[in-house]
Amino acid sequence: MTHPIEHRGNELYIESISAAEIAKEFGTPTYVYSRALIEEAFNSYKNMLTSHRSLICYAVKANPNLAVLDILVQLGAGFDIVSEGELKRVLTAGGDPGKIVFSGVGKTPSEMNTALKSKIYCFNVESESELNTLNEVSKKMGEIAPISIRINPNVNPTTHPYIATGMRKNKFGVPKDEVIKLYEKASKLKNISVQGIDCHIGSQLVDINPLIESIQQLLEIVDELKRRGINLEHINLGGGLGITYRDEAPPSISDYIRSILSELGDNNLKLIVEPGRSIIGNAGILITEVQYLKTTSHRNFAIVDAAMNDMLRPALYDAWLEILPISKRHGIEHKTWDIVGPVCESGDFLGHQRNLAIKERDILAVLSAGAYGSSMSSNYNSRCRAAEVIVDSETIHLARKRESFNDLILGENLLAKTEKPRAK
Ligand SMILES: *Cc1c(COP(=O)(O)O)cnc(C)c1O
Hints:
By secondary structure, this protein is α/β, with parallel strands linked by helices. The protein has 2 domains: 5-32 and 281-408, Lyase, Ornithine Decarboxylase, Chain A, domain 1, CATH 2.40.37.10; 35-277, Alpha-Beta Barrel (TIM Barrel). It is built from 12 helices and 21 strands. Strands 4, 14, 15, 16, 17, 18, 19, 20 and 21 form a 9-stranded mixed beta sheet that branches. Strands 5-6-7-8-9-11-12-13 form an 8-stranded parallel barrel, surrounded by 4 helices. It is globular and about 75 Å long. It starts with a strand and ends in a 16-residue tail after the last helix. Bound molecules: pyridoxal-5'-phosphate.
């Protein structure tokens, strides 16, 4: 069977469309996603959970494009959101609010209000102050807010420090020695309904043991709460399953869920997971054109038209991404290149020291770019955001038009010559 993203002969294909054709039609830089790969990853979760009460909540922040959400809505996904903007995106894509969980340490009263009005499934509460605020907001609205409390299990997930979230020093969750007290308080609040328990220990996890350790801690808390007359309905283990960028060997989605289910045993709690990266990460690539080859006595630089504003992960996490020419060249020399963007920062690189046979105007593909690529992009250096397309077999959907200069300055004003000074 052919893989949906692979070289066939000399040309890189995304399903039935060549990357060269996409570059020609949509220009560069452009993000390209394979619908088949998104569906395959989501269905791997779904198929493993058919005989367990469960909810798979795609973490919108990994890639919030409406067309991506549309695909997942059609597969019956729930969604994990971290802002009102993400809530509105899910609703715009036709997502079921009854399958939305709301994560994040800083939900504002206004965001709580919108989410309550939308009747979301659950708020993942991260502090006592947040709990109090949520109770007040729901009281004013005459609503009852369904909640789960996020535990900080103090485990070390052995991932990059910026994406480890379940250690004592991280801002996330409630320490486990304070959580029973908080549940007892929550269970007495009139406008709060205690539903579950959750954690999310980090991202790009390749070792399942820290998660297993967290599950054990969560189940101990569930039992202790039961003894105190507080019965939970669900356990939410967050997202975080890693993908292969280079030589990482994370468990497969099936093995990951199998291990979780075996740890849960005959416990009849509904299982919620919040995968982001493992759904969309390997389903997307970023194509970019080589503008200049610049050789110094120290290094060879390939300066491309994608930059850290398009793909921040190398600069932010020192992430390694595979970079390949979309059309394999024969008869030119392989050299070691630093693949860099045009932005005025030395941190602006996509990859260092890559052995490639390339020339100017060649198009390169940055692989495994589907998650935290476009979603972390910015307009730094007044660069317009890249186009995004989804390939579905022989069809190409324009998921996001390349930004224009008018998009770039939307909402900005020159100093108004007519404005009067304010009266003292
Ligand atoms: C970011 C995040 C996720 C998704 O993480 P992935 O590593 O992309 O699977 C899930 N839940 C929460 C609370 C998050 O912050």
